[in-house]
Amino acid sequence: MRRLVPLMLAGLLTACSGAANPLLPASQRMPSEAGGPFELVDQTGMTVTDQDFHGQVMLVYFGYTNCASLCGLSLATLADAMDAVDPAGSETALVFVTLDPRRDTTELLAEYVQLFHERMRGLGGTREQVDGAARAFKVYFTVNEDGDGRFYSVDHTRWSYLVGRDGRLVQAFGPGDPPEAIAARLQAYLRG
Amino acid sequence: MVDRRMVAVVMGAALVAAGAAAAADAQLGALRIGNARAGATAPRQATAAAYLTLANGGGAADRLIAASSPAAEQVRLHMTAVDAQGVATMRAVDVLQIPAGGVVALEPGGLHLMLEGLKGPLAVGTTVTLVLRFDRAGEVRLDVPVRSPREIARAGGGQHAH
């Protein structure tokens, strides 16, 4: 029953927004497996791979900086969860991966992650690098091209991931999950 | 939602009003606008989100038909929703209906005002001006406080509290 709570909250969120209630098969809601090899570029311009994070726990979200509402909410929630359990980030990496590397440059990522947490890392790179990371984490997205290519949106799966020390998914969370729920799962994993 | 003529008209009206200060909250005819706040942005960030609550105390429905800000190229009302594959989408909404006696809350992760093409970063502790135009209630100029994204997520509450 506990697993249902985030799903119900996610449904309520959508109901509050006035959209159709997405009563989906569970298989479409949250991946039960994610993670794998990736190579990206961090906010300092350094190339990083999945190997750099092995041995650490990751709280990771895929989005884009022009997604000011949902992505901000998801990243703020992860930052709150991390502060509740491991504020210094001694065992936990707090990671934002952009799905929009064309607009989200290394310089912008460096500024953007600071809005959320001094320990947050912002990963981007080439379109191919980002596509590869998204595939590994089963993140699906569509770039909605518009006329002048400036104010387009990027549809994307909305999960936040708790990734274990082995680089594999421990649990996915939806935007309706409060930081307390993520913090509790992180705490259990770190101390388990 | 872009209406440059309206911006000019509203700014002209503000000059005539000679110092009548805009506030974060407002009563505009039958409409009460409250809990307005905008998310702080990074210097290179092009987009900000703003939220507020619209309560219609009147006997007739009203509609938000235009929004603008001197701080951005354009302001659009956006809806974040989840499609049949669990994918979050963000789409522009042209007109927002506020039913008679109803309350519409713009909240993180749902309806929000998107300030696109920011002319400068929004810093915590400052305000950003929003101009909203309603079909019945008319136009209002709000000085919206800028808060950190984490504060907005904690206080925004829609998805956690309902």
Oligomer: heterodimer
Largest sheet of chain A: 5 strands, mixed
Proportion of residues in extended strands of chain B: over 45%
Q: Cα distance, first to last residue of chain A?
A: 22 Å
Number of strands of chain A: 9
The number of helical segments of chain A is 6
The end-to-end distance of chain B, rounded to whole angstroms, is: 29 Å
Approximately how much helix is present in the residues of chain A?
25-40%
- Spatial strand sequence of the major β-sheet of chain A: 5-4-3-8-9
In helices, the fraction of residues of chain B equals 10-25%
- Taken in chain order, the helices and strands of chain B follow as HEEEEEEEEEEEHH
**Parts with pLDDT < 50 across at least 5 consecutive residues of chain B:** 1-21, 157-162
Structural category of chain A: alpha/beta
Estimate the global geometry of chain A from the Cα principal axes.
globular
- Kindly state the number of beta strands of chain B: 11
C-alpha-based Rg of chain B, rounded: 15 Å
Gross morphology of chain B: globular
Q: List the uncertain runs of chain A.
A: 1-27
Q: How much is the average pLDDT of chain A? A: 85
Beta-strand residue fraction of chain A: 15-25%
Instruction: Give the largest interface.
Output: A-B, 49 and 47 residues
What are its keywords?
heterodimer; A: about 190 residues; alpha/beta; five-stranded mixed β-sheet; globular; disordered N terminus; B: about 160 residues; alpha+beta; eleven-stranded mixed β-sheet; 3 helices
